[in-house]
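Please fill in the sequence for the structure shown.

STRUCTURE ENCODING:
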């Protein structure tokens, strides 16, 4: 290909990477000097790591941490605090509590809101769904923690409504909570892949006699298209039906830190729970996820005490009572140092930049006869199809897959592919404020070039016998 950029990882095959890593796992009775261990890492691991700071990385929610975040992460590493409670880390426990208060304020949540740091957005979503079930159990007059889902009059009726584009961690959550995927009901979406409130009301009316809708999940920044569901109207609908409203803002909530984008998150202060992953768009070191609750007392449903640890009689701050893990990292520090070092104005600027780049790409593609954007971009993601004349309509899905696989194999850039209804679409994501329209146009040029090498002649047609 003509691309002006180099590889963004070694490009080696899985077998070759496995072979190359062997010296790092050759444990012997005697140890190696650190300099030698370091040399092995440089030679055998680093070439195979993805370079997130390269312009060609346009596929996933990963970033290299900025300097403030890196500083906080180094301190957290050096002191390896287990931030469960005051007894294990007084400063760590208080830092997390105060940081959570500050974050609630930053996102305009109510004075009664609270938050906890989590290992990942997946677990934050799972805990939110668990708390939604708890609330429903209380309405039915029993304690979910004690009786489990068997306490519901008819557990098979329990239902959760969300977008077909919701992240698969929701599927994972209903599996792990014992509800099963049968509990998930897809909500209709509009042309821009946002949940359609009017259609949602109709669906709820239809389900009225057959299902108990426990929770409606809005996504603020869907994984596939970055779309932001209309949070305010969904909150109203959920609460009219005694359902919990969870916002999965794992990726998109960061954009709520940009003043002019706040109206897109209207209603968020009334959501019952919100997931946020600073380890995505903000690039804070992994793991760094946050679960917000609108009413801090709802965290009480998570609290488990023991005689030796987190004793019921202790009155000091114990952030570990708000989520399952007993050993927890000092995640709050890297997020705090990152916001402190950059300042909120620079954070907002850095968030505007991916939006600008992806909007410019969208405008460009609208003018191209051989590309079709699939939605208006709301965050840093754009899905589109390449539709050159020489490829028949019925081969379009295969063409996108062919292009995606060709780009992946070449190793100079990384984009992604997804399915929206029946269509396979290419997906480009901008995370870094250094990625420009020119970088995205390079990707478009590569897509065109690979599209030209799509083997149309030899393809068996449907009507061939
Ligand atoms: C919208 C959304 N929710 C949840 C998740 C899962 O978050 P994590 O990867 O932190 O488990 C993702 C991951 O991409 C996501 O995009």
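FILLED IN BY: designer on duty
SEQUENCE:
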């Amino acid at each position: 290909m003509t691309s002006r950029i180099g590889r963004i990882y070694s490009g080696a095959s899985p077998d070759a990477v496995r072979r190359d890593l062997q010296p790092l796992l050759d444990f012997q009775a005697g140890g190696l000097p650190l300099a030698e261990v370091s040399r092995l890492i440089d030679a055998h691991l680093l070439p195979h790591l993805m370079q997130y700071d390269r312009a060609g990385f346009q596929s996933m929610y990963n970033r290299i941490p900025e300097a403030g975040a890196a500083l906080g992460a180094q301190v957290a590493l050096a002191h390896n605090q287990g931030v469960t409670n005051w007894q294990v880390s007084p400063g760590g426990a208080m830092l997390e509590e105060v940081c959570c208060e500050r974050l609630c304020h930053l996102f305009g949540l109510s004075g009664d809101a609270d938050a906890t740091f989590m290992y990942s957005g997946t677990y934050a979503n799972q805990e939110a769904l668990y708390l939604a079930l708890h609330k429903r159990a209380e309405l039915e007059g029993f304690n979910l923690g004690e009786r489990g889902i068997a306490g519901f009059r008819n557990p098979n009726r329990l239902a959760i409504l969300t977008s077909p584009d919701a992240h698969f961690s929701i599927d994972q959550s209903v599996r792990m909570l014992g509800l099963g995927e049968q509990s998930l009901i897809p909500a209709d979406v509009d042309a821009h892949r946002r949940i359609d409130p009017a259609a949602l009301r109709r669906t709820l009316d239809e389900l009225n006699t057959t299902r108990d809708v426990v929770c409606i999940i809005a996504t603020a920044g869907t994984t596939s298209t970055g779309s932001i569901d209309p949070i305010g109207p969904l909150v109203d609908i959920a609460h009219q039906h005694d359902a919990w409203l969870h916002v999965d803002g794992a990726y998109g909530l960061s954009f709520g830190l940009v003043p002019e984008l706040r109206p897109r998150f209207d209603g968020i202060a009334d959501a019952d729970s919100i997931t946020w992953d600073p380890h995505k768009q903000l690039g804070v070191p992994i793991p760094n996820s946050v679960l917000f609750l609108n009413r801090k007392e709802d965290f009480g449903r998570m609290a488990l005490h023991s005689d030796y640890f987190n004793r019921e009689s202790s009155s000091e701050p114990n952030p570990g009572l708000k989520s399952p893990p007993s050993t927890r990292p000092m995640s709050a520090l890297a997020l705090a140092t990152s916001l402190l070092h950059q300042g909120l104005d620079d954070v907002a600027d850095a968030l505007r930049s991916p939006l600008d780049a992806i909007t410019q790409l969208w405008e460009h593609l609208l003018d191209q006869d051989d590309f079709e954007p699939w939605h208006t971009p709301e965050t840093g993601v754009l899905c589109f199809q390449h539709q050159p004349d020489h490829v028949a309509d019925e081969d379009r899905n295969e063409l996108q897959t062919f292009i995606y696989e060709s780009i992946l194999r070449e190793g100079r850039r990384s984009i992604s592919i997804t399915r929206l209804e029946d269509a396979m679409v290419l997906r480009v994501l901008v995370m870094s404020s250094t990625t420009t329209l020119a970088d995205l146009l390079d990707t478009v040029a590569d897509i065109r070039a690979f599209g030209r090498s799509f083997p149309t002649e030899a393809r068996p047609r449907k009507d061939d016998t």
